[in-house]
Structure formats: structure tokens, C-alpha cells
Design goal:
Helix content is 74%, strand content 0%. The chain is built from five helices and no strands. Helix 2 packs antiparallel against helix 3 (49-64), helix 3 runs antiparallel to helix 4 (69-85) and helix 4 (69-85) packs antiparallel against helix 5. The chain is elongated and about 40 Å long.
Length: 121
């Protein structure tokens, strides 16, 4: 599967070459990233630039774990912007939403391709 945003081959080495560990990480991120994203957006809407900066930085580290380096770098830029300007301009938020939607679609497709592991007997 070719991905525009995820570079799973690159990060496989970080997981000791274990596809099971990588898949477990992908599933966890697929489950937890939407909550972080919601917190980021609500922080932006509330004008809480400090929280928006912290959450954007945390998400950058999370998506870097699955090889979404461009999105990670963009989130770091958002974090710095929130910290320095005390708000994130709407065009940057629109771009962030597009990136987020694309990365989550790719991540969801990868996770959906692999069934959950059967429980041990």
C-alpha cells in the first residue's frame, strides 16, 4: 500500500522490525489521535494558545512515530505559532484540518487491512 503521508517502511526499524509492534502502535494512535485533535481544536476555539501549543507538539511526536514526518513538522510549526502569536491564523488551521483528515484516512485504511490478533488460547 502506497501512502502519501505515512512512511511505515522507514519506521519499521524503530519497532525492531516487528510488524506486530508497529500494528499495535498504529491501532493505538488511530484510537487516541482524534481525542488529541479535538482538544487542540477546542483549545484554538477557546483562545487557549498555551494548551493548543502543547497539544500540537504532543501530536507532532505521535505522528512522527508512524512516519508522518511532513504532518509532524507542520504540527511543530503550529505549536510555535500558537506560542509566539497567541493564536493560530485560520488559513493554518484549515491546512491543519486537511492534513489531519488525510493522515487519519491513511491510518484508518492501514489499520482496517489487518484483523485484530486472535487471543492466545
Amino acid at each position: 500500500m502506497t501512502s502519501e503521508h505515512l512512511d511505515l517502511a522507514k519506521v519499521m526499524e524503530c519497532y525492531g522490525g516487528s510488524p506486530q509492534v508497529l500494528l499495535k502502535t498504529l491501532r493505538r494512535i488511530n484510537t487516541t489521535l482524534p481525542g488529541d485533535w479535538a482538544l487542540f481544536m477546542s483549545s484554538c476555539e477557546a483562545g487557549d494558545s498555551d494548551m493548543a501549543s502543547v497539544v500540537a507538539h504532543r501530536m507532532a511526536g505521535t505522528v512522527a512515530m508512524i512516519g508522518a514526518d511532513d504532518f509532524a513538522n507542520f504540527l511543530r510549526e503550529l505549536s510555535r505559532t500558537a506560542k509566539s502569536k497567541k493564536s493560530i491564523p485560520s488559513p493554518l488551521l484549515s491546512r491543519a484540518l486537511k492534513y489531519y483528515d488525510e493522515v487519519m484516512a491513511e491510518l484508518g485504511a492501514v489499520v482496517a487491512r489487518f484483523p485484530l490478533e486472535a487471543p492466545a488460547p
